[in-house]
Amino acid sequence: MKNLRDSSRNAVLLGDLIQSGGEGKVHAVLGRPAVVAKMFHRVPPDSALQKLKCMVSMRNAVPEGISAWPLDVVQDGAGVIRGFLMERVDGHVVDSAVHPGMQRMHFPKATYGFLLHLAGNIMNAAAELHRAGVVIGDVNERNIMVRPDATVRFIDTDSFQIAMPNGVGLCTVGTAIYTPAELQGKDFATVPRTTNHDLFGLAVLIFQLLMLGRHPFAGIPRDRQFGGSIEEAIRVGAFAYAESLRTPLMPPPDSLPLRALGPLAAMFERAFLKPVRPTAEEWAAALRDVRTRQTPCHANPRHSVLALRGGCPLCRLPREPFAGTAPQRAQAGVTVHDVLRDVAQLADPPRLDAMLREPDPANALDTTPMTPSSISAEDQVFLARRVGSAVPAVLGMVVLLVAGAWLVFVGGGWGWLVLLVGAAQAVKCGRIVADARRRRRLQRQVGPYLNQRSVLARELDEYRHLERRTSSLEGCLADRLERIRNAARSQAEYLRLRLLDPEAPFRLAEGAFREEWRAKQLAQAFVRDSGIPGIGPERVAALQSFGIESAADVSEAAIKGVPGFGALLTERLVNWRRSVEQVIAQAAPPPAPAGVLQTHASAHATAVREGEQRVRKEIDEYQSTLAAARIELEQAAERLNNERARLWAMAERLRRQ
């Protein structure tokens, strides 16, 4: 465009293109470094131009330093308004601070305290605009610019709603995922908005900041019939993180719990579940109060604890939101060669068999006779012999004698023969009775011996059980010691190989630089910029709420849990990641700068020192475990030795009886 002038007829010379959007382009203005010009793609309708002129006229009524307010109109040679001038605002859109992936790129030194400070500044600026009678209208994560010091400026101010002499200059645009339920589906070109509507979108934005990119209305449906889209969730009040009532959504996995925000949790429930929401002033005061009472995390200086109990919730997340913040540990002066020598000289685990002095009592019972040695061989044979009962013999003798006597009395010749047989039976009965007496006498002698032999057999069984338990203990101790020793040897071998190759640090540094470069390219390919068909702002917000911001986060498993993403969209996302990977693979990484090589070489040296520390720790653990194992095994072996000696003594006493 040529012959551009402001309302005072001063020439406006456009410089470099800064940004291009749906309504127009933003250019630098030559000779005026503090000012930029937003030039429309096409001339807006008359109502929009009247609103723009009114905003220019009220520029002094709006506090400075909180927005890129229209300063003057830009006209062509025919007097047609083609754009407007506004204050130049440097920084990044708030979206870059909301999501951890973009935050690491644009605000690498951000802390959780920085996010709290930024949230408070946003609410302070919004409160200033509301006091000036301005309704922001289209609150979203791309119309606020953030500087490294957390100061903010609202941009796209020409879309704000303002009061005009002849009515209201409406905000005719909106972003659905920042729009309250009462405005969902409304025609913004005809519906006036209020500051209460702003407060919903502002609360969503603050929630995203403090919950690390998670949208309050994106979650896991409790009921399969619930679609789970963000717009639907807003319409039905399905605040996924609500703790005061049960809503149709649950928080996505690996999210901060709402109670981690301390006193801010109740304010978010008011903002999302009540018709009258906390004002920007209330938010600013609450955030200021929380900042003064936040507790630093001892494990990570970039974390802050808002809740009064339960430790640091940021430390419990599976992914560190502020990458590269692990505190450095002091390095101990340990020599690699000493470590390698000590690992090679680690003693073997103790052996139980080397600690057993007494002979194994396995055959102790076999060496003891079945009867005492004081019993003669003849008596042993007698005891082994089976002896019948004396009762049948006595009864037979009585019958024979009575029968023989009766036959003699009646004159039978056979009676004397029967009496003779009865007498023989009487002699036999005498022998049986004598044998019974002899057996009882011998059994009284043998009984205690057999009891002692039975006790020996039982105690031998108990000894075997003790021996098996001790062997199991020996195996467990040996396995534990072997695992520790193998770990020490493996780490020591890793250190030895590094020492053998002096060029390894630089080669590894170059390889690490290339891998880091590729990983960084992948992490900077954001889904919101992918242009994948079917994945608009709402689905992008849903993905971000489940921790999927860039190509580095995309995988079938990660997408599976996100509501509204079926096989087709999942395939498109995965294919997009593959295409990004192919482009990155074909690109030649820049050569590693000398400083990076030195940094990686230093990191390599640090890794070696830390490896030495780990090996030394493993050596110390092995030696202390070995000493404890030796004591434990010696005590167990002493019990076995005592039992062996006692059992052999019992067997020896039995043999002497």
The CATH topology name of one domain reads: Transferase(Phosphotransferase), domain 1
Class per helix and strand makeup:
alpha+beta
C-alpha Rg (nearest Å) = 47 Å
Percentage of β-strand residues: 5-15%
The main β sheet shows up as: 5 strands, antiparallel
The top-level CATH class of one domain is: Mainly Alpha
Portion in helices = 40-55%
Low-confidence stretches: 325-334
Order of strands across the main sheet: 1-2-3-5-4
CATH architecture of one domain: Orthogonal Bundle
CATH superfamily label of one domain = Transferase(Phosphotransferase) domain 1
Number of strands: 14
Shape: elongated
Return the average pLDDT rounded to an integer.
85
| Gap between N and C termini | 127 Å
- What is the number of helical segments per DSSP (H or I, 4+ residues)? 17
Could you list some keywords that capture this structure?
Phosphorylase Kinase, domain 1, 657 residues, elongated, three-stranded antiparallel β-sheet, 17 helices, 8% strand, Transferase(Phosphotransferase), domain 1
